[in-house]
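for the writeup, i need someone to sanity check this before i put it in the appendix. the sequnce is what the collaborator sent (i think, or maybe the updated version? ugh). structure was predicted straight from it, no edits. if anything looks off just tell me and ill rerun, i have time this weekend
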Amino acid sequence: MSASTFRLATIVFLTLFGSARIATAEPFQIRLITFDNLPLGPQSGFYPDKGIALFSFTKDFPFTGLIDVERSSRATTGANVAYATQILPDLGGTFFGFRPNIRTPLNATSTFVRFSVISTGGWRAEFINEDGRLMKQLSGEGKGEVIALPSLSADIASFKLFHTTPGGKVGIDSLEFNSPVVPEPGTLLLFGSGISFMLRRHLRKSRRGEGDRADLC
């Protein structure tokens, strides 16, 4: 491989790596939801200002975007806890983001998730990546704290909290996570344009060099 080709390959790699970092990682904001400012009873689990949607579900029934806010003496902060509904007793959450001037939510990921489990029995927490694959699984009994970090290959796209005791009930309190900002499409387009320009420039130089060598033969 010639020196010029090696330099071009290095520049392209660094450019692609830089665009990938912008698309998936930076910048992040710490988000905290305590549920203490919500009235008691069924509530919407959609938090557009924080980039997360909570929902109740079961393995055999589609999820609903509702949670049940109740008072609990075991709450980590204040008195309110977000439980799954009585009809759908499992609780989950998924991350999303918005681009400017686009109202449709876009899939997003978090690099850190932490919450307190408030349960009347056994529970199991699962964390899933964008491909729907299980990244991490934790379990416990009664009250406990859950902390999840991303794997080496992907960040956290959603989580699910199951009750594992018949007739049990699961809830969360002090939900904390990193909420990513979805990058501007123009930023990624700029990187792509730069790569195309460098490739065209390199090809022109290579063709001129081949022509000069042919004239010498």
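The first strand starts at residue 28 and ends at 33. Confidence is low (pLDDT under 50) at residues 5-26, 186-199, 212-217.
thx in advance!!
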